[in-house]
Amino acid sequence: MDALIAPVRDLLGPAWLPVWTLVKIVALVVPLIIGVAYLTFWERKVIGWMQVRIGPNRVGPWGLLQPFADTAKLMFKEIVVPTGANRYLFFIAPMLAIGPAVAAWAVVPLTDTLVIADINAGLLYIIAMTSMGVYGIILAGWASNSKYAFLGALRSAAQIVSYELAMGFALVAVLMCANSLNLREIVAGQEGGAAHWYVWPLLPMFVVYIVSGIAETNRHPFDLAEGESEIVAGFHVEYSGVAFAVFFLAEYMSMILIAVLASVLFLGGWLSPFPQLNDLAIGGFAPLGDGLLWLGVKMAFVLLIFLWVRATFPRYRYDQVMRLGWKVFIPLTLVWIGFIGTMMQTRFAPMFH
Amino acid sequence: MLENYFPVLMFIAVGLAVGGSLLAVGRLVAPHRPDPRKNSPYECGFEAFEDARMKFDVRYYLVAILFILFDLEIAFLFPWAVVLPDIGFFGYAAMMIFLAILVVGFVYEWKKGALEWE
Known about the structure:
The complex is a heterodimer. Chain A is 64% helix and 0% strand. Chain A contains 12 helices and no strands. In chain A, 51% of the residues are buried. The model of chain A has no long low-confidence stretch (mean pLDDT 86). Chain B has 4 helices and no strands. In chain B, helix 3 (58-82) runs antiparallel to helix 4 (84-112). At the A-B interface, helix 2, helix 4, helix 5, helix 6 and helix 10 of A face helix 1, helix 2, helix 3 and helix 4 of B.
């Protein structure tokens, strides 16, 4: 590998670093976008099975080419810009929705060494980026100059900021256990098997995090912002064609981001649940040891929760959504932070590290 | 130290470029046949009879203010949680007092009905 890279590095000189970084970024973003495509397919399949239907099965073997057919269809549809819309903001909004959802992946560690930017303020950066996503929604609703879009954007923004608080408090609880903002070190702190994962001492926080994640990505049963029966499609009612696809991409990208964060922060990231599996090596390589496989399994598990919840629960009413966020989750997280802090002053402290 | 952040900067640019390039592809390959009916804002088949940027409920504004307050508390909690083992009981007690004051404010807004959406 090194022998292959070295001549190119010498050739490019100072331009090497940006080019090599760009190659790494593309190598992460392209699989992510394909992952989004297949998450939409998987969602339709799972919900189909749960409702005793077959789900998409026409395009390609077992319907596996369905996401590409959808993409091609959306690509060749006209992008309608409403007369009263602010044309610049109308097109900037989808970019602002997808940009942060992609950019947050810069600091996510996939394995011990596989991380693009290993920065100290990793978790802080992710919070900053995910908070930016709300700008895309507000701008989309305002720029469309349509009542449904406007109301949907307001609802969505209020809901996202409310659940961001609960999510932030849940992350503080993780930090109290991990004592580091670096995601790689947070995973390293959970070493030693499934019993050492933060999900056990922080079980209520894990639940709050997952539910807040569902609410933040405007997913069912919290998809008030796009409740068909009341405000049609919410903030993206005026978007068509590929502009709509970008919002869709952003939503699913955020879902995968929530899943990977839940795995990294609570479920031990790439660590195998049984450390003994690392000794089960064939020729110096342990296929079931710590690695990408386990991160993938954990992400798939969290994503399945997302889909399962969508297929199971009826939609909440808006006041119920806000009540759950402000009157249940925020008090619960505050109490749990106080509880962990208190326990850390006692002899039970090692249980929380 | 700062060079660690260079890939982050590039990643943000790539993120925006993903959206931008998709939209550009849409503009290039999709048909573009504007029509006054088609381009009017969607309102269940009615003509749009006033500007959509209308007055909205003050409670959204209230939620925004409360969000800023609580988000600030979270910003305070972050560095505290990172150095928790080093600052010991004093750090713990200080933050618990701080949180207690926060809870008093939270109870007040709850009793005042700022969290009600009837």
